[in-house]
Amino acid sequence: MSKKSFRQAINEALRQEMRRDPTVILMGEDVAGGRGGSAGTQDAWGGVLGVTKGLYEEFGETRVLDTPITEASYIGAAAGAAVTGLRPVAELMFVDFVGCCLDQIMNQAAKFRYMFGGKARTPLVIRAMYGAGFNAAAQHSQALYPLFTHIPGLKVVIPSSPYEAKGLLISAIRDDDPVIFLENKVMYDVEEDVPDEPYAIPFGEANLTREGDDVTIVAFGRMVGMANEAADRLAKKGIGCTVIDPRTTSPLDSETILDCVADTGRLVIVDESSPRCNMATDIAALVAEEAFDSLRAPIRRVVPPHTPVPFATVLETLYMPSVEKIEAAVTATMNHRVTEKV
Amino acid sequence: MQIARETLLRSYRAMRTIRMFEERLHVEFATGEIPGFVHLYCGEEASAVGVCANLTDNDTIASTHRGHGHCIAKGVEVAGMMAEIYGRSTGVCRGKGGSMHIADLACGMLGANGIVGGGPPLICGAALSHKTLRDGGVAVAFYGDGASNEGTTLESLNLASVWQLPAVFVVEDNGYGEATAASFACAGTQKARAAGFGMPYIECDGSDYFAVHEAAGEAIAHARAGKGPVMLHVHLQRWYGHFEGDAMTYRAPNEVAEARRDHDCLKLFRERVTQAGLFEDSVLDEVDAAVTDEIEAAVMQAKDDPLPQSADLLADVYVRY
Amino acid sequence: MTPDITPITMPKFGLAMTEGKIAGWLVEPGTQVTAGEELVDIETSKITNTFESPVAGLLRRHVAANGEMLPVGALIGIVADAAVADTDIDAFITRFQADFAAASDQPDGAEAADEPVMMQVGAHSLRVHDRGAGDGTPLVLIHGFGGDLKNWMLNHAALAHGRRVIAFDLPGHGGSSKDVGPGTLAFFADVTAQLLAHLDLSRVHVMGHSLGGGIALTLARTRPALVASLTLIAPAGLGPQINMDFINGFIEADRVRGLQDVLKYLVHDKSLIGRRMADDVLRYKRLDGAEAALRQVAEACFPGGKQGDDLRPVLAGADVPVTLIWGQADEILPVVQADGLPGSVTRHLLPAIGHMPQLESATAVNEVVGAFIGHEVATA
User: Fold this and answer.
1) What architecture is domain C117-373?
2) pLDDT digit string, tens, across residues C71-121
3) What subunits touch chain A, counting only 3 or more CB pairs under 8 A?
4) Which chain B residues are within 8 Å of A118, Cβ to Cβ?
5) Chain segment A34-86, per-residue pLDDT in tens
6) CATH architecture of A2-194
7) ipTM field
8) Residue pair A89/A77 in contact by the 8 Å Cβ criterion
9) Which residue spans within A13-154 are E strands per DSSP?
10) Which conformational region is residue B318 in: left (phi greater than 0), alpha (psi within -120 to 50 degrees), or beta?
11) C336's torsion region: left (phi>0), alpha (psi -120 to 50) or beta?
12) Would you tell me which CATH number, out of the four given (3.40.50.720, 3.10.20.310, 2.40.50.100, 3.40.50.620), belongs to the domain C5-104?
C-alpha cells in the first residue's frame, strides 16, 4: 500500500494486467509516442497526459501499439481484435473524439453479442478522458457517459478516486463485455493510498462515501469528491448526507439508490454531463417511478446548463457543478415544505 | 494454377448453393413471409467462393449487408442461415440478427454488417489478432464500391499498411452503391487508392471463378507471408436490386439481362470444367439436384421452426451484467 | 510590481500539469539571455521539457534550485536589468512569495506515525503494527480467519502500556502477502515464530482470536519457550463444530450487501455490522489471491466442514497461564467448546456476546487481559 496518483493507479492496473495476461494489448494515439520521429525516441509521451508511460518499455511494440490519428479504424480494430482472441485496451484520448468512431462502438462492439445470438464475447476496454475544468473548451471537455450508458451492450465505468480507478480498470480488463472507462482529466494528480497488489472492484455495486440520515446525494466521478466536501460542510450544520458513488452507470446499482432514498426521503443528483437525458434525469426517473412515496421533497439536480462547455475560466466555473451549488441544493431540499392542497 | 478436383467440386457446390439460396429468397420474400429486408448476392458468387477457397476456418472474414454469399462460402450452415432469415429461434443468431447480421465466429465469419464500411476496421483487428497470436491466419474484408469511399475503409487501408497486417481488402465492385453508380461516386481509381497506401493491388473478373481463385490466392499468400496487406479489386455484376423490391429504374433495361447471359459465373465454370474434361455434366447436375433439395429442406424447416420466446428478448445483451 | 524586474515562474506544459521539478538550470545567474533561449529543464510527472526564456534580459537569480518541486506559477528565477539593486530584487522575491503562498494556501500534511508497516519475514511480506514500549513482556495479537490487525482496534492501544503490543496480518489476510502454503495452523504458527525472531523477541504473551487462538495453541505446542502466557478468545481447536455458513459465505461474498449479512454471524448485536465495516473487509478480500488463500485455509483447517485440529491436549500439558474468553452467544464456534478444560484455565464466559468479544465487549476484555498478563500493566 502506498500513496499513488490517479494516473499511477491506472498505469499500475494496466501494467499488472498486461503481466498477468499476454492477450492484453494497448493501442491508441501516442500511447507510446515518438515512433518514426527524427529524435529516434521511444515512449516519448506514454499517452498525451503520461498515463501509459513506461508500458512500451516493458511490453514492446507488439503489445503497446501507437496508431495513426484515425479513431474509426483503430477503435474498430480493437473491437475486431476483441472478438478474435485479444483483450485490447484502446485509448480514445478525449472522449469528445467518439464522434469520429461512434459506429464502431455503438453499432459494432456493443451489439455483436446480441446480434449474433450470444455467440460473441467482446472483451474490449475503451479508455478516454472526460470532464471540464481545464479550460479545454467545447470539444475537449464533455462528460459523455450518458451517451454510452444509453447503448445496450456497453458497460460504463467512472472511477472517482485512484483506489477506485485501479480496481475498476482491472475489472474492466477482465470483463468479457465492451467497457467504456472514463477518466476525469482533472483528477490525474489526485493521490490516495492504493494497494500495490492487483484487485478487482465489481461493477454494478455503488460505494457509499458518506452516510447520513437527511439527504441522499448521488454523484459521479469527480463530482463524488465535491459531494463529499459538501456533505462534510453540511454535517457541521447538522445536516446528514449519504453520498452514493455508483461507480458504473451501466450497470447501475439502482437498489442502493432506492434504499438510501427510502431512508432519507430527499435526493440530490450531481452530474457534470449536459443536463438533458443525462444520469441525473435517469436516476430522477427511477426514483420517481420506484420510490415516489418515500420522497419528502422534490428531487434536485446539480447539473451544468444546456450549453457547450465554455472556454474562459469565469464561464467554465459558472458552468460546472461546485461544492457550493451542491450545498445550496441540499439546503433547498431540506427547506422544502409540503403545501397541502385545499 | 492447378486446383484440386475436390476443391473445384466444393466451390461449384458453394456457388450453386448461394445462387439457389438467393433465388429462393427472391421468391419467398415476395410472399411476405420473410420479415425485414434482404440484399441478394446473385451474380457475384464466384467472388466469395473464389476468395474463401483460399481460406481455412482459422482465417477470418468480415462481410457486408449483402452477406449471404460470404457466409455460405466461409462455411456457415445453410439451414441455420435460412432459419435466421425467417426470424426463428433455431437461426444461427437465434433470430436476433437477421439477414444483415449472420455471423459464425467458430468458422471465422465475423458477420454480415448493416453498416456500409463497418467491416474493414474490424478486419484490421482480426488481422492484428492473427499477427499477435502468431496463428498464421489472414483476415479478409469484403466491401463494395460504395464502402470503398467510406472513411472507415480508407482509414483501415492506412492502418493495415502502417501496422503491416496480414489483411486482404476485397473490393467487390458491382458498379452501384445503392442506386448511385460507382462511376459517379468513386473518384480516382481503386488501383491508385491501393498505391496511395503503399499496398499491392490485384484486379480480376469476378464472373470467372478461376481468375478470382488465382488472384485471391496470390493476395492471401502475400498477406500470410507477413508482407503486409493487399487490395483485391473484383469486378462484378449485381443481378437483383440493392434490396428486394428495388425496381432498378437507374439501370438500363438490358444491363442485367446481358450480365445474366454473358457473366454467369456458374455457366462459365461449367463450360470450362466440362470442356477441359474435368467433370461430366452429370456430376454437376447431381450437385445441382442435391443443392435444390438442401434449399427446399432449409426453407421447409425454417417455416416450421419455433419462434423466439419472450425470455430471448432480454438474453445475451451481455456476457454478465 | 517593479517594472524592471521580470519574475520567471514555473510554466504549465499541457493540460494537466500542476507542479514541476527543476531538472536543471541551463543558464547561470549573471548571463544575458534572449527571448526564446533555453533557460531551464522542467520535469513533470510525464515528461521533461525545456522552458525557454519568455523575455530578453539579464538572468539575476535562480530562486528555485535544481531538484526543487514547485507548483505551476511559483517563482523560479528573476530576470532584471543590471541597474536594479540586489535589495530591490530581494524585496520583490519576498513580496512575490508571500502573495503566492497566500494564494495557494496549502496546509502541510501531518506527520504519520503509529502506523502499520510492511516487513519482509522469510518468504512473506507481513503488515505489522508495533505499538507501545516498556519493560513488560511484549504481547502478540493473532487475529482469526478472514480477519486482520484491525480486529484489535479497540484493544491494541489500550493494552500497549508498559510493553510492546504487536498486531499483524497473517499471510493471506489484510495487507500481508497472499501465499498461505498449506494453510494449516502449524504453518501460521511457524510464520508467527518467524516474525517474533525477526523482531528479536524470545518470549511473549500470546493472544489469539478464533483461528488465531488455534495458532496460539499450536505455537505453545511446537515452541513452548516462546510463549509466556496464552489468552484465547473463542479459539479454534477445542471442538469439531464450526459454522460453515459463515466460512463459505465469507469466502464467496464479493459485494458489500452479501458480506454485511455474513459478518452479522460474528456478533450478537447485529447493529454493530455497518456498511463501512464490510467495505473495509472487502478492500482486502478483493486483492488478487485473497479468496484462494481463504479457500486454502478453510480446506486445511476445516476439512469436511469440521475443525481438523484437536488442541485440547495442548491445554492439558501447558505449563504457562491460560485465560479463555468466550461469548455465550457465539454463532461461529459454540461456547460449549469452553467446557471440560483443565482447571488451570481461567474462563470468562460473557453473556449476550458473540464471536468477537474483543470488539463487542472491548472494555471487559481489556480489563481481563490487562489483569491477566501482569501487574506491570498501568491503567490508562
Assistant:
1) 3-Layer(aba) Sandwich (3.40)
2) 888 999 999 988 888 888 888 888 888 888 766 654 444 334 588 999 999
3) B, C
4) 94, 315-316
5) 988 999 888 899 999 999 999 999 999 999 999 999 999 999 999 999 999 99
6) 3-Layer(aba) Sandwich (3.40)
7) 0.95
8) no
9) 24-28, 64-66, 87-94, 125-130
10) beta
11) alpha
12) 2.40.50.100
And the C-alpha cell for B162? 502502417
Return d(Cα A260, Cα B204) in angstroms, integer. 67
CA distance C46 to chain A (A): 5
C/A Cβ contact: 3+ pairs below 8 Å: yes
Evaluate the CA torsion angle B153, B157, B163, B169 in order and state its sign. positive
Spatial contact of C254 and A167, defined as CB atoms under 8 Å apart: no
Cell numbers for C334? 459454540
CB-CB neighbors (< 8 A) of C283 in chain A: 195, 199
Q: How far is CA C39 from CA C14, C36, C62, C86, in A?
A: 18, 8, 11, 21
Q: Are strands A267-270 and A215-219 parallel, antiparallel or unpaired?
A: parallel
Closest by alpha carbon to A89, among A146, A188, A18? A18
Q: What is the DSSP letter of A56?
A: H
The per-residue b/e assignment along B299-316, b for 16 or more CB within 10 angstroms, e otherwise, is bebbeebeebeeeeeeeb
Strand-pairing partners, residue A91, are A28, A127
List beta partners, residue B234: B172, B204
Q: What angle do CA B160, B165, B169 make, to 5 degrees?
A: 60
Cβ proximity of B213 and B55 under 8 Å = no
A204 CB near a chain B CB, below 8 Å?
yes
More confident residue, C48 or A273: A273
A207-335 belongs to which CATH class?
alpha beta
Question: Quick check: B134 contacting A, CB < 8 Å?
Answer: no
Q: Read off the C-alpha cell for B273.
A: 470444367
Return all residues near C136 (Cβ < 8 A) that are at least 6 apart. Answer: C162, C163, C373, C374, C376, C377
Kindly state the cell numbers that stand for B189: 481509381
- Cell triple for C19: 507542479
Strands (E), chain C: 5-9, 19-25, 31-33, 38-43, 48-52, 57-62, 69-71, 75-80, 117-121, 124-131, 136-142, 163-168, 204-209, 227-233, 322-327, 345-350
In 3D space, the residue among B208, B280, B235 whose CA is nearest the CA of residue B15 turns out to be B208
Cell matching residue C214 = 488455534
The residue written with cell numbers 468479457 in the block is: A176
